[in-house]
Amino acid sequence: MKKFWNYAKQKLNVDKRLIAIYCVIYFLWGMGMDWFGMQAGIAKFTFWWQVITCYILYMVPVSLLLRGLPFHMQYAYGLIAMGLLEFAGYALQTSYAYPDNILDQFFNIRNFSLGMALFFALYFPTGNWLVGKIYALLFEKS
């Protein structure tokens, strides 16, 4: 366990500007996905502020921990992180899945949360790539 904490401290000790970019990008991404989920009648957060707890307080630290790993490792570890988040959200009823939504129709209701976790696990490698590009564009000198 001590090995993990040392790893985590190292990975989370980053430039505050990088964290700010993660927070802005993930907040906008989360608000956009919540809006899309409502418009498409797929799923939504029960409260708008859950974007902050899920995307910023949960997903940003996970992204930082996974940053620098190969795509497949970020996705695999991200799948575990998102599986736990999706499970908790629907178990605690802080997330709402619209009845008979398009994912239920296409994949079956029993596969809804799994499908969501499989999709949202892509956030970690994609988010790390996007934030890295924006950070480099804004702050790294050529």
Automatic annotation (TrEMBL):
State the source organism's domain of life.
Bacteria
Name of the featured protein: Uncharacterized protein
Species: Flagellimonas pacifica
**Could you read off the lineage of the organism from its UniProt record?**
Bacteria, Pseudomonadati, Bacteroidota, Flavobacteriia, Flavobacteriales
